[in-house]
């Protein structure tokens, strides 16, 4: 009888002077789900890299199926049955799901070597068998990139099981999923557990840990801060260990005092981004000194609405900012009219991720005085402006010339806020501001938003985190299938918000 | 008239098609092969020299293909192992091939621009001259050479090779998502190298066909941008074999038509630009198509 499916004993690993893992021990048994939680930079990723054979620990050892092992590389870990489900899925988008399933281990009909013929029938039979075993349905002939995200994730899990993985490491698997998809994933993970598979579940979300895991370990600053059976602890206790006793998410609930209308939208409609919903006849107003939260299941038109308002997407209808008609104005002119935009895609749209912190902090202001005289960029002025902006929001960084990618998620987002609030805009369009940000970073971003509101700014906030919306907003609008289906007080019953979020048949 | 355009159109299609076959496999593996032109030129040069030396079109054709294959493989190493930019490296190879051939011609043969060698064995015709009496396609059949048949066969088996064999799956996966190949324990760089060698082999065949199909004389301008037209063809055909072949045939027929039209009195330079203009149109159209798909 195997007692330890995958174990780490006294793992130490340092990068230069950074002690990423300082003697971490944990283990997961067959048929057990063990959650590993901690802030970004706590040392979770390093530990996972050691368990996958990507990094060799400075000291300590790894145990697989009650045997001590040492990995020369990731292939060794794979051969020992350790499978990793990545945050960014490892499927080739233009191949079919079936082709992705068998890639690298194809069932053969004829011949050997590279030119052997693949037996697609038996491949599909295997796929069906595995999908049935874990209780899901997959259209195997679909192009991977066109399949829903949770199906892509399931196929990746099935691929690992097919190749004999008895230990699965799930790295924040719910980050990209809608609530219903999360439930499906959890059902699937529980069925895999019943088969005796050991599961390490890495997460940020305490609610998910409580719902799914058998055991939980908190890592803080490279050490084990806490470990317990989930049945014997509480969400509050776990949260307090993650942030070392301080109140996890920023402070008391404050409401603003709304003033005159800043953003006035009437009859806005726009076409949809792939797999999402087009906008139908949207009308609402945002006043100065208030945060209006926009709730909804991902892909119900939130992205389209924010892009239409910021000038990134063509739309019909009337949009006025403090009485100025924005119709036909592009993003640059809209910004000039007093609008800031926090993109949900920080790495691609919010920041030029490989450019320096300094350049990101001043981007957009580089065309005009004081940074540019129309011909040359004044480097001194550029540095002065960047420093002033970064200091105002106390962004922590090494050097101005470092790439912005070197910052943590929270500090990256602070750079975005520093830039977007620099021209004292009247309106901030904010989308998923705390995605991929750790708890302390979340608190800081929330207080930036509140301060902006309290200085008579208007904020339209889109978030998939209901907690966040209810804590920050003065009122909440719910979006479903490209329409605004309801408006509520911020402290409305959560079940009521949920009911509106899943409204079907309001016309598509 | 139609018969002649058809016959010469197919002869003119073959080198573009052969090069495009290699290029499309290469691109499916994630490498845009700008250097088809240079490798075709090398193939044509080698084919003439070897054909004159051995008197065998078969030996000459194989030699052309193998030399281009080796060059293609070496070219891929600069990209996969040394991290060269594939466009820059490809342009460099084109310039290098043209320069090296010019040097060899003047150094070894004392000629500049054009190389005439005695006893060059041309590609044979597959069918006896009597098929010329068949209506419409008679001319075409009479001029059919083995490399044209090889090109058509290759187009016919490519969908199967790419779709049903491990190698085909790996090639497609490499071009689509190389990190996924690594994650499942395969080596994407090896596949990129193999596919570039394959492209070199076919570009060599294309050069041999160009040199040995009718004239048997090497000229520095022999390829005349056909490597780039092949590039446009597989872009336009979105790396799919039959669509790419159709694009090649369109370019070949246009080329044949413009030669004919020159005799009718239209300005020859203007008409000569037609195939290249078509390439431009083809690329704009295919780009617009893919833009519309992503929006």
Automatic annotation (TrEMBL), chain A:
Protein's name in the database: ATP-binding cassette domain-containing protein
CDD domains: ABC_Carb_Monos_I, ABC_Carb_Monos_II
Domain of life assignment: Bacteria
Sorted UniProt keywords: ATP-binding, Nucleotide-binding
UniProt keyword Metal-binding present: no
Molecular function in Gene Ontology: ATP binding
Pfam family, one: ABC_tran
Family: Belongs to the ABC transporter superfamily.
InterPro entries linked to this entry: AAA+_ATPase, ABC_carbohydrate_import_ATPase, ABC_transporter-like_ATP-bd, ABC_transporter-like_CS, P-loop_NTPase
Domain ABC transporter: 6-246, 263-506
TrEMBL record, chain B:
GTP-binding found in the keyword field: no
Pfam assignment, any one: BPD_transp_2
InterPro entries noted in UniProt: ABC_transp_permease
Coiled-coil ranges from the UniProt annotation: none
Keywords: Cell membrane, Membrane, Transmembrane, Transmembrane helix
Transmembrane regions: 6-25, 32-51, 57-79, 91-109, 147-169, 190-211, 273-291
Membrane topology reported for the UniProt record: Multi-pass membrane protein
UniProt main location, coarse: membrane
Compartments, as annotated in UniProt: Cell membrane
CDD domains hit by this protein: TM_PBP1_transp_TpRbsC_like
Iron keyword on record: no
PANTHER family, per the entry: GUANOSINE ABC TRANSPORTER PERMEASE PROTEIN NUPQ, SUGAR ABC TRANSPORTER INTEGRAL MEMBRANE PROTEIN-RELATED
Protein name in UniProt: ABC transporter permease
Organism: Hoeflea alexandrii
């Amino acid at each position: 009888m195997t007692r330890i499916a995958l174990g780490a004993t006294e793992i130490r690993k340092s990068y230069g002077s950074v002690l990423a893992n300082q003697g971490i021990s944990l283990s997961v048994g067959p048929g057990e789900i063990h959650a590993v939680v901690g802030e970004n930079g706590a040392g979770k990723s390093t530990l996972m890299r050691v368990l996958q054979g990507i990094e060799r620990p400075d000291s300590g050892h790894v145990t697989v199926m009650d045997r001590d092992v040492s990995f020369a590389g990731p292939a060794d870990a794979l051969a020992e049955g350790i499978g990793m489900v990545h945050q960014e899925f490892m499927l080739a988008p233009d191949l079919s799901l079936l082709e992705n399933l068998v890639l690298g281990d194809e069932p053969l009909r004829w011949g050997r070597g590279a030119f052997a013929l693949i037996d697609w029938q038996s491949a599909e039979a295997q796929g069906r068998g595995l999908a049935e075993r874990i209780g899901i349905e997959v259209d195997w002939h679909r192009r991977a990139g066109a399949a829903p995200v949770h199906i892509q994730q399931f196929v990746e899990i099935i691929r690992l099981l097919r190749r004999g993985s008895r230990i699965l490491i799930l790295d924040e698997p719910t980050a990209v999923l809608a609530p219903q998809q999360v439930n499906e994933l959890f059902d699937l993970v529980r069925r895999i557990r019943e088969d005796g598979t050991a599961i390490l579940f890495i997460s940020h979300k305490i609610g998910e840990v409580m719902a799914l895991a058998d055991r939980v370990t908190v890592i803080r600053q490279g050490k084990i801060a806490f470990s317990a059976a989930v049945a014997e602890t509480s969400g509050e206790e776990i949260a307090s260990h993650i942030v070392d006793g301080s109140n996890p998410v920023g402070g008391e609930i404050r409401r603003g005092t709304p003033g005159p209308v800043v953003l006035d939208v009437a009859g806005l409609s726009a076409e949809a981004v792939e797999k999402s919903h087009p906008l139908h006849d949207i009308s609402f107003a945002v006043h100065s000194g208030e945060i209006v939260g926009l709730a909804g299941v991902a892909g119900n038109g939130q992205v389209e609405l924010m892009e239409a308002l910021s000038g990134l997407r063509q739309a019909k209808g009337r949009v006025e900012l403090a009485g100025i008609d924005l119709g036909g104005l592009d993003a640059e002119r809209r910004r000039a009219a007093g609008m800031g935009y926090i993109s949900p895609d920080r790495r691609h749209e919010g920041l030029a991720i490989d450019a320096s912190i300094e350049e990101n902090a001043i981007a957009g202001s580089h065309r005009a005085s004081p940074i540019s005289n129309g011909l040359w960029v004044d480097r001194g002025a550029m540095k002065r402006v960047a420093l002033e902006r970064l200091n105002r929001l106390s962004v922590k960084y090494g050097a101005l010339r470092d790439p912005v990618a070197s910052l943590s998620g929270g500090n990256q987002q602070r750079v975005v806020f520093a830039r977007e609030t620099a021209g004292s805009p009247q309106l901030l369009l904010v989308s998923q501001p705390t995605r991929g940000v750790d708890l302390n970073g979340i608190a800081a971003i929330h207080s930036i938003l509140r301060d902006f509101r309290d200085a008579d700014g208007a904020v339209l906030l889109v978030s998939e985190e209901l907690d966040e919306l209810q804590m920050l907003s003065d009122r909440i609008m719910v979006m479903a299938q490209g329409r605004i289906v309801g408006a509520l007080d911020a402290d409305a019953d959560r079940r009521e918000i949920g009911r509106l979020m899943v409204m079907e048949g309001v016309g598509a | 008239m139609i018969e002649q355009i058809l016959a010469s159109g197919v002869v003119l299609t073959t080198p573009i098609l052969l090069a495009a076959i290699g290029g499309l496999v290469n691109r499916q593996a994630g490498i845009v092969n700008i250097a088809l032109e240079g490798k075709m030129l090398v193939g044509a040069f080698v084919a003439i020299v070897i054909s004159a030396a051995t008197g065998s079109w078969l030996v000459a054709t194989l030699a052309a293909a193998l030399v281009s294959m080796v060059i293609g493989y070496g070219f891929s190493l600069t990209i996969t192992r040394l991290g060269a930019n594939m466009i820059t490296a490809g342009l460099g190879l084109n310039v290098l091939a043209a320069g090296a051939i010019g040097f060899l011609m003047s150094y070894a043969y004392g000629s500049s621009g054009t190389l005439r060698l005695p006893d060059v064995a041309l590609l044979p015709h597959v069918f006896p001259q009597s098929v010329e009496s068949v209506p419409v396609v008679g001319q075409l059949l009479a001029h059919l050479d083995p490399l044209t048949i090889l090109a058509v066969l290759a187009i016919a088996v490519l969908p199967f090779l790419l779709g049903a064999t491990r190698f085909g799956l790996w090639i497609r996966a490499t071009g689509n998502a190389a990190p996924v190949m690594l994650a499942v324990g395969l080596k994407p760089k090896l596949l990129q190298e193999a596919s570039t060698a394959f492209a070199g082999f076919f570009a060599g065949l294309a050069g041999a066909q160009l040199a040995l199909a009718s004239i048997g004389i090497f000229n520095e301008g022999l390829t005349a941008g056909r490597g780039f037209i092949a590039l446009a063809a597989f872009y336009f055909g979105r790396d799919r074999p039959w669509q790419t072949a159709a694009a090649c045939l369109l370019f070949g027929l246009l080329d044949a038509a413009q030669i004919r039209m020159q005799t009718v009195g239209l300005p020859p330079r203007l008409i000569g630009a037609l195939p290249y203009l078509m390439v431009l149109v083809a690329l704009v159209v295919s780009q617009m198509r893919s833009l519309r798909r992503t929006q």
